[in-house]
Amino acid sequence: MWEELTQKLNLMLLVFALFQLIVSFFSGEKFAWLQAVTVAIAVLLACFIASGCDYAKQKQQLRLVGEIKKETCQVIRGASGTSKDILCSDLVVGDVIMLEAGDRVPADCILIEEMDMFCDQGEYWEDNHKEHMK
Length: 134
Hints:
The chain has 134 residues and is mainly α.
């Protein structure tokens, strides 16, 4: 919330609302202060909504990072050419990833050899995020 409030535009709007509130007390109009209070409430509400969205994004990112850290994949490492299962978070440049039907691609990679391979990211995303789409 503090990061949103300290953005230049929000600070400028709050300063102008405060200035207008001070000026409204010296004017002869009955509800001149109402406009300044409305601007301040709108800025605070916008900051609250923006910070709530940022919090939800960060929470989702941490959940996804946690899922990725638990996944394993089969790789070929070194000159010996033997394959072993490792955590996807332990992949390094030069690892050869062995993919089978239904596997997720754990990292950006170059396709060395394939046979009738295709990717359907949309169905995977919809199947695993149905609870968030409601």
